Amino acid sequence: MAVDISKFDKGFRNHPSFNQIVTEANKSPLLVELINKFPGKIELGEPGSAGYFEPAVDRNGRVAFGGNGVPTAGIINIDKDWVDQISISPNPKYLGQFTTMLAHELGHACEPEGYPKTNYSMPSDDYVNALLKGEGVAILAEYRVARQLHTQMWSSDSSPNGLQAKLDAELATNRCNFADKASEIGANHYASQSPSGVPHLNYKQYYETWYALAYGHSYTSGEIERIDWKKVKPEHIATKPGANREFLNARPLSLKPPVSALQQGQATCVQTSDAQHSSRSAHETYPVMGAQQYLEQKLSQSRDTPWAHPAPSNNASDHPSHVSHEY
Ligand SMILES: [Zn+2]
Known about the structure:
Layout: H1 10-13, H2 18-25, H3 29-37, E1 41-45, E2 51-55, E3 74-79, H4 80-88, H5 93-110, H6 124-149, H7 163-173, H8 178-191, H9 203-214, E4 237-239, E5 246-248, E6 270-272, H10 290-301, E7 324-326
Parallel strand pairs: 1-3
Antiparallel strand pairs: 2-3, 2-6, 4-5, 6-7
Helix pairs in contact: 2-5, 3-5, 5-6, 6-8, 6-9, 7-8
The structure holds zinc ion.
Residues 104, 108, 135, 138, 269, 325 line the site of zinc ion.
């Protein structure tokens, strides 16, 4: 079986790196399978647009899931800079990383629980765990493709303590339920990572914030659900010295148009490159505006506050910098 190139949009197919990508993808049976069963288009996105899977939504803004529990349609966006990199640099690592990153997004799109069904009536822990589980499922696809292509995973560094080394060690000792264990390892890995746009939070805290912001809100009732997390920058998240919470700052946040998958809190995963990671100090503070007040109000009203977790470390250097995901 070979890659069905019609799954890629025209911009992709015309890109100078495209033949290299297809040749490489054809060496991984799993990647071929995932590409060919993906029910949407893989699109060449704007430079800086990162990589993410976004499922299609119906007119009520809800994601349609098929009988196999995966979204019935959607797009995968890939940052043009990353595709350019493959043809610009002779270093084969870019091609390897690219293929595993694509496998990661396809894992979200095509594997059961890769894109979790979530809603705000779920307990916050269930909500957060479902999203982290989705990352674990995507990591498993990424790892399998990396093995088939003998390359390094996008989400891992090459250190002996890196994610890939952990998965190798697990595979060496546990072939029976490796898939479950690997996705658990992947979920735990993600829980400790930071989205590139939100370096002061790890993913667990980020998803909790997301939940808290949208808690009890319908998707048409305000702008908070319309935060375009892809455009959130480090300075939009402020820490308050001495406080045991992180605060979200509403004013500079970009808002999406009213109809979007994001409104129903369907967090999607965005991958970004090293260059976009910020090492900005976590101790900087910013004026506190509407969203914080809203969040505070929601938290004081809610007995089961999703924010009742220990404050994250304020040491920015704690945050791994090699990869970031959002949503
Ligand atoms: Zn992901």
